[in-house]
Specification:
- By secondary structure, the protein is an alpha+beta fold.
- The chain has one domain: LCP protein (Aminopeptidase), CATH 3.40.630.190.
- It contains eleven helices and twelve strands.
- α4 packs across α5 and α5 packs antiparallel against α6.
């Protein structure tokens, strides 16, 4: 004979009580209609709970010192301060011709506008011999600012002449540059314009370069033609960055940072660089990294206007993106309305 499963009488009593309560509750909610109370505009305004809002602290700008030395040409007025979007950072890369910690002339000046939200960047290279106003001194070559007053004077010079300040900067000396190239296993460089009277001769074609040869390649200057040298610097800059982000080499960042720290002048911390690793990997895509070149001529000096730098970093305004090895097409106008004559 089968035995039926039954609940004890006590448990059945509790279940009956709960069922009655649920029935009464459902009946009450079905018979009662909630009243809607319409509030006037004044009542709605006063009934809102105030919420705290964060107001960004305005970034202070520079107060530029007047010229203390006679100027060979008229000092231009300060460039208007550029309005940079919040998600665009400005990174400055300089090449010092003296061993650290001695400040020397900067043979390489590269401004990177990095859109951290879109993971895009635009690098604008400025010839270091560009004639600009050095605040507190006089009209002089841009490459003298670091030797005269270190990074603080470089930033003030960029702010006066271009209306832009650098959020982060890296100044590399010759030793740290050669080390980096050697630590990455050297570079395969396509030489477009041959160098006959320097670097032990470099014919046009593909060359495998170590750190010392690469340093000569980016430093060589013939007949004051700095455009070609700046173009070569762009080429090596992209080769170095591409090789650094490939094949998992970014895991070496802590070791590289510790090894080069004494030879670099930078406000990048190791922790910040590590946080940017995903950004660096995305920028390894050539379509996300665009290079531009500021040129000067014997007739007049071009100064750059970077009001559209946020737009440049977001999408780019020149089709000359890709490998800097395409050097002959890279010296075309890098952006409409990004240049002006001195005194214009």
């Amino acid at each position: 004979m089968k035995t039926a499963c039954t609940l004890p009488n006590l448990h059945r009593g509790w279940l009956t009580f709960i069922a009655v309560l649920l029935l009464l509750t459902s009946c009450q909610s079905a018979t009662q209609t909630p009243e809607r109370t319409l509030l006037g505009a004044d009542e709605i305004q006063h009934s809102r709970t105030p919420t705290a809002t964060l107001t960004p602290t305005p970034r202070l700008w520079y107060t530029f010192a007047p010229s203390s030395l006679p100027a060979v040409t008229a000092v231009p007025s300060p460039a208007p301060r550029m309005d940079i979007p919040d998600d665009v950072q400005v990174w400055l890369f300089l090449g010092n011709d003296q061993p650290a910690p001695y400040p020397g002339r900067t043979q390489a000046v590269h401004l990177a506008f990095v859109n951290t939200r879109l993971s895009k960047a635009s690098v604008i290279s400025i010839p270091s011999s560009l004639f600009v106003y050095i605040p507190g001194y006089t009209m002089q070559r841009l490459n003298t600012a670091y030797a005269l007053g270190g990074m603080s004077l470089v930033r003030e010079t960029l702010a006066y002449n271009f209306g832009v300040d650098a959020d982060r900067f890296i100044v590399a000396d010759p030793q740290s540059f050669t080390w980096l190239v050697d630590d990455l296993g050297g570079l395969d460089v396509s030489v477009i314009l041959p160098i006959r009277d320097g670097c032990n001769g470099l014919a046009a074609g593909l060359h495998s370069m170590n750190g010392e040869k690469t340093l000569c390649y980016v430093s060589y200057l013939s007949a004051e033609d700095e455009v070609d040298r700046t173009r070569r610097q762009q080429q090596i800059l992209q080769l170095l960055f591409t090789k650094l982000v490939q094949n998992g080499r970014l895991v070496q960042l802590p070791v590289l940072y510790a090894s080069y720290q004494a030879h670099l002048d930078t406000n990048f911390s190791l922790a910040e660089l590590l946080l940017h690793v995903p950004l660096f990997l995305r920028l390894g895509d050539p379509a996300r990294l665009t290079y531009y070149l500021l040129r000067s001529s014997t007739a007049y000096v071009l100064l750059i206007r970077l009001e559209r730098a946020g737009e440049v970093a977001a999408a780019g305004c020149n089709p000359n993106h890709g490998s800097p090895a395409q050097a002959r097409s890279r010296n075309r106008s890098f952006c409409p309305s990004l240049s002006r004559r001195v005194g214009a």
